[in-house]
Structures are given as C-alpha cells and as structure tokens.
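Tip: read the tokens left to right.
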C-alpha cells in the first residue's frame, strides 16, 4: 500500500469529471487500498479518487468511531433521496475550512464493491452526507461550491496565502 498525495482546492484537477469503471480489477483494488490508507492517515472519513488525481468513479468512506467499517464504492449512483439536513462539512482537499451545507437526509445508493459485486445501501445522517460529498467530487464538485460566491472567494484567498507560507 502507499500514501497518495491529495490535491488541494482550488487545483483545477479537482473539477475533472471521473470516468465510469468498466471492470473492478487488481488496479482498482490497489487504488482502493491506497485510498483507504491515505484517508485513515490524513485522517478523514471519506476520499474520492478525484482527490488523488485518479479520475475514476471510486470512493472510500469510513464514518465509524473505531475506523473498522471501510466502505468502498465503485460507480456509486444515488437511486433515491429524501428529506433535508444541514451538516458542517470539511474536506481533505480544503484543509482548515468547515461550513454548513444542506443535503438530503437519506439516500439509497447502488455501487460495486471491491470484488466487483453490485450492492445497495440505505444511508442517513453522517453517512448520507459523506456519500453525497464524495459523489460530488466524482462530478468535479468541491463542497465549497455549495457556499456563496463571497465565501468561495474568501476560502480561495485564504488557501492561496497558506500555500505561499508552506511553500
Ligand atoms: Ni472532500
């Protein structure tokens, strides 16, 4: 396994749309393992392949307290959504920035697992938020794009300043 570098907003590569995965093979399984390691190390509760500059529809999530419930979703698709919730979100690609985003309260998702087997999942609360946040990444959308233009401008300026200091 290997730790992968995570792209930082406003890197334009975060806005690429990820491609459908035609077959879950060893390359995809290696990607899932590396993404999981990178997510746990960060630490974070979700990571999309887009964030590690691999533009394939692969997501890893673990919202469990003890970090033992790794969920890998290949070609995830939201079949159904209901309700509304507001959650304070953060993102490994937007370090130090947290803000409230409105999303669906519950989602039903279909995906392939790491073996290429299809499954469906009903999720609510934090898991539902995380699934929607990660699928956004696959569409080239970062959570700050749910915020006002004014806030987005401030976040870009702040991250550019941070990059100058740490460079
Ligand atoms: Ni994110």
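Filled-in amino acids:
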């Amino acid at each position: 396994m290997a730790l992968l570098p995570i792209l930082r907003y406003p890197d334009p590569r975060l806005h690429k749309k990820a491609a459908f995965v035609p077959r879950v093979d060893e390359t995809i399984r290696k990607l899932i393992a590396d993404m999981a390691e990178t997510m746990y190390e960060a630490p974070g509760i979700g990571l999309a392949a887009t964030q590690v500059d691999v533009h394939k529809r692969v997501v890893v999530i673990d919202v469990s307290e003890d970090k033992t419930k790794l969920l890998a979703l290949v070609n995830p698709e939201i079949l159904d959504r209901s309700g509304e919730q507001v959650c304070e979100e953060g993102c490994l690609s937007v370090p130090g920035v947290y803000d409230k985003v409105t999303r669906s309260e519950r989602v039903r998702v279909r995906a392939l697992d790491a073996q290429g087997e299809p499954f469906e999942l009903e999720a609510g609360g934090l898991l539902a938020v995380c699934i929607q946040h990660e699928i956004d990444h696959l569409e080239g959308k970062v959570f700050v794009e749910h915020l006002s233009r004014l806030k987005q401008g401030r976040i870009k300026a702040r991250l550019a300043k941070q990059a100058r200091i740490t460079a």
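The chain has one domain: 12-166. The longest helix spans residues 149-166.
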